Amino acid sequence: MRNDLQLIVLPIISVIPFFLTGPPGEPAGIKASNPGKHSAIVSWSEGATNGEKITSYIIEKYNVESQEWVLAKEVTDPTDVATSNTTVTGLFADTGYKFRMKAVNKHGVGVASLESQLVQTTPDKPTTYPTNIRAGVERKAPSLLSGIPYQESSGMHVALNT
DSSP H helical segments within the chain, as ranges? Predict the structure, then answer.
C-alpha cells in the first residue's frame, strides 16, 4: 500500500494594526458670529485627532486695517474645547476681522484652518449726530443753545456767555 502524500502550502497573512499618531488635522467650518464692539463668537468643527485627544486650540485674528495675522486667543478651557466655540475679546470697534485656528494635542500644533468669512465689529461711537439744533438770545439772560442729543428725547441746554 502506497500512501501518496501531498504537500499543500497556504500563505499566511498577518494583519498588524498600525496607527499613525501626530499633531491634529486642521479644524473645519470656522465661523465668526454675534460681533459686539470688542468681541465675536468663534465656532468650529473638530478636525482629525490623529490618534490623540485635542487639548487646546490657537485662534488667530486678521484685522483688515493692519492686514496681519496675530494671536487672538488660546482656547484651553475643556468646556470650550469640547463645545467647539468661544468668545474672542480684545477686538477694535467698527473693524473687520477674519479668524483661523490650529488644533493642539500632545504631539504638537496642527496646520492652520481655512479662514472664516469677514465679520465687522459694531461701532463704538454714534453714527449720526444731534439734530434740531437751534440758538437764540433771551433778554437779560445768556444765549441759549438747545438740541436733541443722539438717542435722547430731552433737550440739551448749554449756556454761553454774551
Answer: 78-83
Domain assignment of residue 21, yes or no: no
d(CA 111, CA 124) in angstroms, rounded, equals 35
Number of structural domains the chain divides into = 2
The predicted model scores a pTM of 0.67
What is the extent of the structural domain holding 88?
A: 28-120
User: How many residues does the structure list for the chain?
Assistant: 162
What is the SS3 assignment for 83? helix
Alpha-carbon gap, residue 119 to 37, rounded angstroms: 12
Rounded to a whole number, what is the largest CA-CA distance in the chain?
146
Beta strands in 16-78 (DSSP E): 28-33, 39-45, 56-63, 68-75
| Sequential pLDDT tens for the chain (162 residues) | 566 667 777 777 767 666 678 899 999 999 999 999 999 999 999 989 998 999 999 999 999 999 999 999 999 999 999 999 999 999 999 999 999 999 999 999 999 999 999 999 999 876 677 777 776 655 555 555 555 554 444 555 554 444
Residue 72 lies in a domain: yes
